[in-house]
Amino acid sequence: MASIDGLPPLREVIRAHGLSAKKQLGQNFLLDLNLTAKIARLAGDLAGSDVLEVGPGPGGLTRGLLAEGARRVLAIEKDARCLPALAEVAAAWPGRLEVLNADALDVDVAARLTPPIRIVANLPYNVGTELLTRWLSSDWPPFWESLTLMFQKEVAERIVAKPGSKAYGRLALLAQWRTDPKIVLTLPPEAFTPPPSIHSAVVHFTRLEAPRHPADPKVLARVTAMAFNQRRKMLRSSLKGLVPDIETVLREAGIEPTQRAEEIPLEGFCALARRLAG
């Protein structure tokens, strides 16, 4: 990578700028430029696309995205200590990197990017799930074409989980309703500095132009929240507050009232949401 952008290895960058990962910011730096380049490639063909990156840190993945041909990268970094290192990346790629010192939860990113847009990020662990939920819950189709995101491996497994597994829940339903998510890379703790206590995984989400099954988003969200908040209860008990005769509505949706939330596939929850909305 240094031969491509003329910048030093990330360990030198961190040492030169006195950067140390902060636990309270959910930081774990990925310093292997071969790995960051691989993640950038897993996002697909970036040529002609704007890319949003959240939590670039010292800029390893940022460098990979630019080297892989991203038209422009908008990098949102909350930690001001990282700005000088990112400024060096911006100087090596004139006009192609914009860095915002901000909290990604507070930024209207769609207004700052030009379609087609891809989101690629080694998400800070403390905001990763919240950001994903926001991106999946926006108006559909969303402003982005695809997501390529790193999570704790446990979170990644929840995203791709199937009915009948302990990991299956609301996150799996939301992700699989509107996208095709796949785990494309798993990384051990020692790939990071400092090493986290868990493995990590990269998930690539390809958006669907329309949700996989028709359903009102608000009704579906309410139904799945009630069902999985008491996931060990039968649905006739966990959903009894929705309508007076919930057992009849469940049967009309093709669901047995004695079934539990973790047994019901996405299509079943969507059918139930349609019955309730109707």
UniProtKB/TrEMBL annotation:
It comes from Cereibacter johrii. GO terms for molecular function: transferase activity. S-adenosyl-L-methionine binds at residues 28, 30, 55, 77, 103, 122. Coiled coil: none annotated. Keywords: Cytoplasm, Methyltransferase, RNA-binding, rRNA processing, S-adenosyl-L-methionine, Transferase. Specifically dimethylates two adjacent adenosines (A1518 and A1519) in the loop of a conserved hairpin near the 3'-end of 16S rRNA in the 30S particle. May play a critical role in biogenesis of 30S subunits. InterPro entries: KsgA/Erm, rRNA_Ade_diMease-like_C, rRNA_Ade_Mease_Trfase_CS, rRNA_Ade_methylase_Trfase_N, rRNA_adenine_dimethylase, SAM-dependent_MTases_sf. It catalyses: adenosine(1518)/adenosine(1519) in 16S rRNA + 4 S-adenosyl-L-methionine = N(6)-dimethyladenosine(1518)/N(6)-dimethyladenosine(1519) in 16S rRNA + 4 S-adenosyl-L-homocysteine + 4 H(+). The gene is rsmA. It is an enzyme of class 2 (transferase). It is found in: Cytoplasm. Belongs to the class I-like SAM-binding methyltransferase superfamily. rRNA adenine N(6)-methyltransferase family. RsmA subfamily. This is Ribosomal RNA small subunit methyltransferase A. Pfam families: RrnaAD. Residues 35-209 form the Ribosomal RNA adenine methylase transferase N-terminal domain. Its EC number is 2.1.1.182. PROSITE patterns: RRNA_A_DIMETH (PS01131), SAM_RNA_A_N6_MT (PS51689).
